[in-house]
Structures are given as C-alpha cells and as structure tokens.
Fold Precorrin-3B synthase.
Amino acid sequence: MIHRRYALQFRERADPSSSCGHTPARHRVAAHSGAARNIAGVSEYYSADRDRADACPGALRVHQAADGGLARVRVPGGRLELRQLRALTKAAVELGNSTVELTSRANLQLRGVEAPDELGRLLAEVGLLPSLTHERVRNIIAAPYAGLDGRGRLGSVRWLAAELDALLCAEPALAELSGRFLFTVDDGSGDLARLRADVGLLPVSSDSVAVLLAGRDSGVRVPPGAAPAAAVTAACEFLATRERHGATAWRVAELDTLDELIDALRDRAGQCSGSVADVTSRWSVSFAEWPKSQERPTVGELTRSEGRVALGVGAPLGRLSPAQLRCIIRAAEAASGTVRLTPWRTVVVPGVAEEECSTWLSALHSCGLIVETASPFNGATACAGEPGCAKSLADVHRDAARGLAYAEAVDDGGTDAGVLPVHWAGCSRRCGLPRGPVVEVLASPSGYRVSSTAESGTDTWATAAGTEEVAEAVRRARHVGPSTLEPGNGHEDDQQETGDEDNR
C-alpha cells in the first residue's frame, strides 16, 4: 500500500527555491582547476572526473568493457520472484556470456551483452524495468534478513522499499541523481548501517524511523509510513544543496556542506504542512558504527521458525553460472517461491521445509555454491580482471579461484578459514576494495602483493608472489582478526568494470 498522505505532506514546500522541481544543476568545475577542491559544497576528496556525467551502467545504457557490454540490473529491495530469476538466467545465456554477477548493492550484472534493447524487453516483461528514465538510480538495499531472524524492529520492510521505489520513479528531478546514489531500508537490526548509504532509513522503535545521511543521523524521525517520502525529500534536498553551490558531487559524503544538507532536511521536515515528522536532537552515536557488522557473509542455515528454514547461499567470487542459478531456482521453487539478494553477494532462500534443509544444502554445495561459513571462498571478492578489464594486469578471478582452492585443500576440512575478507585487485585502481579491515591481493607486473590492515598499520605478507605463495600468505593474513583502522575505499571508477558495484 502506498501511503500517499505522507508523500504529499513531505512534498509540500515551504521554500519553493529548494523544491525537487528545481532546474538540474548545469554548473561544472573545470577538470584542470586547481581550486576545485576549495569550492564550497565540494569535499576535499572531490575528483576532477566530476566535471563529466556519471557513466555508471544500467540495463539499457551498457558500458563497453574489454569483454563486451556490461549491463547492471537494479533490484530495489533485493527481492526476486522465480519468473524474474528465470528471465535473468535466460538473458545471461542468450544475450551475455552466461554468467550473472552479484554486486555489493544487491544488484545484478550481465557481461558480454551486445543487444541491450532485447535485454530491456525481457526485463520489462517480468517487471524489472518499470522506468526508462530512472532505471539507473533505483539503488535501494533492503534488510535481507527482515522477518527471518527476529533481530529487527520491523517484521517486514518489503513494502517500505517498494513504496520508496515508486516515489523515486515518480519524481522527475531525481533522474538527475548519480547511478551510484544509494538508499538503504534497515529493519532496525543495523545490518545496513555501515554501508553509509546516501540516504538511510533505520527504525529506532516500532513506530519511529531515523533518517540518516551518509551514515550520519539527521535528527529527523518519522513514522514508518512516512519514511519513504522522507527519503525522497532528502534526495531532493541533496540536489538542491548541490545546485546552490554549483557542485557536481555524486554522493552525499562528497559534499563539504553536509551539515547544511542536514539542516535543510530538518527545516523542511518541520515546515511541511501537517507534517508527521519529529525533528529531534541528533544522536551522539554514529549509526555507521552501530552495531558492529559481521566481517564475513552468513551462509548455510540462517534461521528456523515454525518448521521452515532460511538458507544463505554464497556466489564464489560473486559470480553465478547457469547451473548454479538453476539450482537456486529449484530450491526456491520448493520453498517460498522467492529469493533475496544481499549486499554481501549472497542469496537468501527463505521458507525451506525443515526436513529438506540438509538435502538442499547438499545440492547447493554440489553445484559449487558456498554454504559453509568456514569455506575460504566465503568473504572472498575480486575485481573484473582480465579479460573483462583492459587495465588489469592479471586474470584475478582465475588466480583467486586457484589460491582459494589451494587453501581449501590445505585446510583439509578445517573449521576456520580466517575472519577477514579478502579482495583480489588487478591494478592499483583497486576497484571494489571493501570498506573496513580487509586482506588485499594486488597484481603488479612482477606478481602479487599481499597486505592487510592491522592496528599498527598496513602489514605486508608477500611481494612479487606466485599462486601458492599468495595462497599461503592470504591464509595467514585472514587470521589476524578485525582491525581498528580502515583502509581506503578503493578507486571510484565510473567505468564500473567490476562486480563490486560500490563500496564508496
């Protein structure tokens, strides 16, 4: 049900100058300008690339990578019906290179796509392309375990994500958002807090939702029914703030004027006619750090309730083959008839009969999917690498698979593959490097460099290393444990040749 009353309340403007109906910003900062970083509204991390349009790919506007067209299919809320999953499998086989990639925003990618119009037709037939103008900006992650594990304050967030998607597509000006602009809809568990979405909705009680901006508390509280409209309002205020300063920022965190944006949202929430928003003092706690997130994805048996089990299935290095997709489809067909995508490159299959749990786990494992937390492949990611990326110095997927298989054989059924995630990068751009503590395997002309972040700084475990040496170094580094330091977030590449869609 779409709560239009709340939507209208938030879209009434006390100040027309900051309306979402503003003229899109046309100001651009010259790439050669040395003063670009000092302009109000642009952060110190401003990239000169911002003087050109965001080239983030979509389902229709594909990026021409070294291995063909790269298409990204947005899945707002992460929920897929079986007909949609079958259509995606068909599209990958008939229109792409047969592989489907899971991204860090719970979206999907197809590679080798040479007929984007035909892809668009297939997606539209199953409801995955409701808007041609907004298809690249429908980046909405919903809490994947909502209603399954009992940790959230809301039993379901599906309707919130659906309403946010509808309101987003209904606002013409929001088509101007970057394809990287991210919304999250948490269930109150805090699982999505550390993603630092541009606009986040986090329930703090059963009847109150906090609006977060780049992981910071805005101080605005709304009832759940008003939360989607509040998120759209926040996105409109971002565009208005960006325009006032002549900036071209793609993300909220790139604004030096984040405090101004927060104040504008608070003012607007308080001035809306008949507003249901409660503008409170900002919490001192940083939602981006609360609660502490898991270092590695959860796979295998997730929850049991009333004779039903939710299973978590990992995609090796974020990629699914047609056989693996069909195995997931069969499992879901025998369960709830739906799956949920997570930003940790796993697929949740809810509603599996308790007595069939072991059978399906065995079947999924036989297809090469990750169903054991201790697997070295769990928490392992890689950039596109060769042959997909012309900038890569190595076939990182091949080398990562060999190294992880070596670690699996050496462990010989061990129960602990280490707590830290590991990421293979084909060049110094480090596309897709995850946030937080991570082991990095970086390709160079002379081999791989293995490093990790520790409390004392960055530790180097191997240099100019071959496959076996890398595998052993990664095994040791992953056992170091969580760090209090955060490495860089990776290169923000608008070509997006990696399945690690956005950790930025």
Remarks:
- The domain at 380-477 is CATH 3.30.413.10 (Sulfite Reductase Hemoprotein; domain 1).
